[in-house]
Amino acid sequence: MLNIITTSILYRHMAKEEIGVWFFFQTTFILIDTFRTGFLQTAFVKFYAGAQPERAENILGSTWYLGLLITGIVFLINIPAFFLLNYIDNLGIIEVIKWTTITFVSTLPIVMATWLLQAQARYAEILYIRAVNQASFIIFVITLILSKHITLNMVFITNVLSCLLTCIVIFSCRWSGFKSVTKQTRGSVKELFHFGKFSVGTSISANLLRSSDTFIINFTLGPGAIAIYNISQTLTNLIDIPLRSFVTTGMTSLAAAQNNNKKEEVEYIFKKYAGALTIIFIPVIIGGFIFADVAVSLIGGGKYVGTPAANIFRIFMIFAFFIPLDRFIGVTLDVIHKPKYNFYKVLIMLAINVVGDFAGIYFMHSIYGVGIASIPTFVFGTVIGYFSLKRFLNFDLTSIFKLGYTETRILIQTVRNKLGRTREI
């Protein structure tokens, strides 16, 4: 939520081209960071959750070892790019080269602490880390605005400062697990590597799936079009926030059940989360259609009212129905040690999306073509993932939505009971 507030503030105080460059950097950095996250996060949570203490210590130390290695490789690769800056005229590419390395280094302790706390089911601490990181960035940005020093370069500087401040908090609270790096073993490193080589492909493909729209728009329609398109993506991220939280919780539960060879429990957890979240998404989707124009005005301000942003958001709401099922299919395939099937699924979705984006821009000459291409992408992806997972687990759509409906009713009743107690107090 704090990230949404920051985005809204930046939209109101930066030029359309500048905000487009900022989001191009964010998209590119997340893609680069996906190599580290995709290689290690799922593998770490899978092998760490529910493991014996000595085994868990080995996994943590080995993950830190691989994290440092990957960060160092990115640092070395980026050095030659600095010598090419004078030959590049695309501002987005220039900023990526200038700021990727220092941002990548300063975020390593943050992601490591977040993965460790996730595997330990300590979600309050994860929320605290994110709050420190995002709140400090907002405070720095507001300070820049009040002092009239809000420039693209200063936004990049404050982004790094907020990450460094968060690192100080993490090390002070001893949440990073960095001391375990001495406990890494060759066997654990190899185990993480062999699992990660499939999950990283899935993660990079999944991120390319999300970021391909931004890259294609940047090089065909320009950064101004990115600014408009990103409003719709930001609004979609709003409804994705609770989904990511449930995915984080669900992945830990799935991994613990899988590590204890409880297949029926894995099936139950998958159906519960996928079904309940799909049902919960229905009124959210309807609300998105109705209030799209109001939402665009709240995020982007008056200068984005009347642009295609609201209609693009409505298009996103069409395929949003498939997102919970698609997301949990992918997570479950990874957890049951079948990451290559998830990788193939996402790769096919990426191919459909890229072809659809270029075809949409060619025929419609606007970002509408990019938005429409997302619909068949998620429909086909969900269908492919569904039949892939059915090869290993016993479920069908009826059982998913039946259990999801039951869990939704229980959730609603629980909320009502808590509200009733609050009123009595």
Q: How far is the N terminus from the C terminus? A: 29 Å
How many H/I helices? 15
What overall geometry do the principal axes of the alpha carbons give? globular
Structurally, how many domains make up the residues?
2
* Class by alpha and beta content: mainly alpha
Radius of gyration: 22 Å
| DSSP strand count | 0
**Unreliable sequence segments:** none
What is the makeup of the main sheet?
Answer: none
Average pLDDT figure: 88
SSE string: HHHHHHHHHHHHHHH
Residues in β-strands, percent: under 5%
Q: Give helix % range.
A: over 70%
Structural account:
The chain crosses the membrane at residues 64-84, 96-115, 127-146, 152-173, 273-292, 312-336, 343-364, 370-389. There is one protein chain. This protein is mainly α and 425 residues long. It folds into 2 domains: 1-220, no CATH class; 222-425, no CATH class. It is built from 15 helices and no strands. The longest helix has 37 residues, at 223-259. The model has no long low-confidence stretch (mean pLDDT 88).
